Please model this.
Amino acid sequence: ASAGTCRDGQVDLNSADRKALRAIDHVGGDEATRIVKQRPFKSVEQLVEVKGLSEKDVKEIVEQGVACVG
Model:
């Protein structure tokens, strides 16, 4: 997912609030807080750097297609 590729219904990792981030598979309150603190992201794949998210989790997040980077 390259920059500026958010579509309607997707959650932008760089601007969504914590509540909206929780719509993403594998993202709970703790992960949402870490995502906000670790912004900005250049790609959805960068979520592997967020504590609590494994490479498998991030692969599933990418496949889910809800997360994007605007």
